[in-house]
Write a structure and sequence with these properties.
2 copies of one chain form a homodimer.
Chain A: H1 6-21, H2 28-35, H3 39-45, H4 50-75, H5 86-103, H6 105-113, H7 115-123, H8 127-146, H9 151-167, H10 178-193
Helix pairs in contact in A: 1-2, 1-4, 1-6, 4-5, 4-8, 5-9, 5-10, 6-7, 8-9
The structure holds a DNA duplex.
Chain lengths: 200, 200
DNA sequence: GACGCTGAGACGGTTTTCGTCTTATCGTCT
DNA sequence: AGACGATAAGACGAAAACCGTCTCAGCGTC
């Protein structure tokens, strides 16, 4: 932790400050105090101040998330020689992502201490980026299985569903459970693959 | 909750703000927004601003605490006709107070989100007031049993012990457990009653 | 209708925060 | 050793946030 890069140290400090006070209440000086870096250094590494810094933090959190997700999904291929069918791949993506969200300590704290800010990042301002990064990571994974259809649309849909069921769990569906996830996704997925993208 | 007194509404709002951001980061405008009261009203009810307001909040929390404590201890008198011996009374006080501290949701949140501030209120700046209020409530309870000794000294001691064991539980003592509490308190109590206030 | 209480918010003064800049220190490379 | 880049510390003026007070309008009560 101590020997990390300077920018990592600063982002970690910003993350801690965030958890304590919420983005809105954190000042650059708080991050200076928490990171041990000097004000000048912070502005050199993140020119633009708080906005740029927290933007960088969000990007890092997001890529970390998808690094873990893709690693877990790739490693978890059952036989790991023969690729599974699309449906199994999708189910594994969704269930793993759901589990990762539910285990995310930082996210839980942020939702508890600054629900407004955090919900915004998950559902409004932040959603386009989430979908973009998700596409970067996951399109290559699913594309070979569903060509020639557009994989980006599928990912877009899955991201929205996963986040919605994470934020507001349903009595009828549990996307953390492979059985339930498969039951929900199968019809939509087949419709999609047969050229009838789900209504909406 | 809505029909409460204005000052109660404002103090409740201040409490919520506190839990979210810690006293240091809360502004009058935050409390205005959270309470629905206007800035003018807040300054009229708490002339002096944030300091006075949070002071009032601490006093309220404190008196609430001891209201609950004395009610529980009084009601919990085993036969409730014949008064117990001093030792049993003291043990009941300490165990009940410990349980109340451990169940205090607000206190737990404050200790988690603003440990520095909160610890200060429990151990340094705030301790004199805690002891003073404790004395107001508890001296009448114990005085009849230990006259002609000074009950204030005993209360002072018990407050400090209870807070210390709450903040830093020991492997050897559990002041939430009557058996353990009695074992710890009996020797000190007897020494005190026999005119040898515990060394220190 | 007069009166008191309250919410809304304007206002100037103060404090905090920002973003830049300078200086001193430290480690590294030559 | 000496030059150099990176960094911590913190000074500085400008901008923003915050404070405490004040006015005013709305609303219920007498």
């Amino acid at each position: 932790m101590v020997g990390d890069d300077l920018d990592t140290r600063i982002l970690d400090a910003a993350k801690r400050c965030c958890e304590q006070w919420g983005v809105a209440k954190v000042t650059i000086d708080d991050i200076v105090a928490a990171s041990g870096a000097s004000r000048a250094t912070i502005y050199r590494l993140f020119p633009g101040g708080k906005d740029v810094l927290f933007e960088a933090l969000r990007v890092r959190e997001l890529t970390d998330f998808f690094d873990v997700l893709t690693a877990a999904v790739s490693a978890g291929g059952d036989g790991d020689g023969e690729p599974d069918d699309v449906e199994s791949l999708i189910v594994r993506l969704v269930t793993t992502a759901t589990a990762e969200l539910r285990n995310d300590q930082h996210l839980a704290i942020m939702l508890a201490t600054a629900p407004g800010e955090t919900l915004g990042q998950l559902t409004v301002e932040g959603l386009p980026r989430i979908i973009r990064v998700a596409a970067d990571y996951l399109v290559p994974l699913v594309k070979p299985h569903i060509e020639p259809l557009d994989p980006a649309l599928l990912i877009d849909l899955l991201v929205r569903l996963t986040i919605s069921y994470f934020l507001a769990p349903s009595d009828l569906v549990d996307l953390g459970d492979p059985r339930s996830a498969r039951a929900v996704l199968r019809p939509a997925l087949h419709a999609y693959l047969n050229g009838h993208p789900t209504a909406c």
